[in-house]
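Why do we care about 3D structure at all? Because function follows from shape, and shape follows, mostly, from sequence. That is the central idea of this module. The next example makes it concrete: a single protein chain, its amino acid sequence, and then its structure expressed as tokens.
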Amino acid sequence: MYHPLHDPPTLPLTAYSATALEPPETPPLRGHHAADLCVIGGGYTGLSTALHAAEAGARVILLEANEIGWGASGRNFGQVVPYLKHEPADALSTLGETWGRRMVEAAAAGPELVFGLIERHRMACEAQRNGLLFAAHAPAALTRLAARAAFWRDRGNPIAILGPTETHDAIGGGRYWGAALERRGGTLNALGYARGLARAAQAAGARLCTRSRATALKHDGARWRAETAVGSVFAAAVVIATNAYTDGLWPGLSRTIVPVRAYQLFTRPLSENLRRSILPGGQALTDTRRMISGVRLHADGSLHLSGYGAPFGPEARPDYVGATARLRALFPQFGEIAWAGHWSGWIAMTADEFPKFSEPAPGLLSGLGYSGRGIALGTVMGRELARRAGGTPAESLAFRTEPLRPIPSAAAARAVARGIVTLYRLRDAIDAFRYGNGPSAPA
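And the structure:
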């Protein structure tokens, strides 16, 4: 059975590779070492945990099986979103008033935490906080965006709702029924941010060890022991922060999520004239179709598009034909589209698409399952894991502590996920047939 950990152990070439700052020195763990906290996983969640725990005075050792940002933290779309996967009202209904409100507010404050860390630690990761555009592909979608805007306006965070002409001008093309301009969010170099967190954690005193896969986790009643091939860490607490790349280190944890492969495509740098006409305000664009639809422009002028491809198994060639058609529909000013390449990574979907904070044994913590919202949520989750490891009561955290609820069958979960993908594509196709390419093009 194919698992995300079967992917090659080196990061692929991405739109981030050329401009991300160099990784810090993180030699493998050798020998036996003591710490207050052992963190397993060198992505956003683990690095944020290490940083916040070290800043609070803890002795921290982090173990990463490959390299910093090797998983989704170095491969995602690079959009810092202040939302959960679900709308706020759905979170309040599902999780209850107290925990639903806390999780919604934690997600909303995520960009402030991310961009605050970037500024405080002077991370070179091309951070741009110009906002995010969420464009409505159908009239009902615009109604949902307006409801979202009303929810946040009542809480002192105005979100602008743009009409069709304003939306067209903000995108530099496209035909949408309108859009929400969310100014709390932004974009960054995803790999650069992971490496920036790593450097900040090291500066705070954390020890980061790459090429150091945790192979066993044991508890002797007084402390935990995390073993690697050539070393071990003895610690009072352990955080597992491996998200979609979670293996069998702790029984049942990997079965609480469904890893889904997400694809990213990018072009060669556009001409100066062309890049000035696309997303002129510097925002990333996501529309309200059910399937992924992100478009953003990088500092070097390359255009980055989230695309479709095989959601399970080894990486396959994504749908370049569909991606080309989407760009041409959005931006008729394009001439020939010169694709530079693609890459993929795994995102972790939970059964209800809410993040999961768990404490499966005393002193053992985990946080995972961001459903494609990992930059902000993973950073916030890391802070909360560090707080809990440092003794903060569980009832004071932003995330509710939940027992592990393994999905009974991985094969059944993938079948359900495939069915959902098929349904979403069908519903998007129905909307496209019903509403055409959107309202009349602006004059």
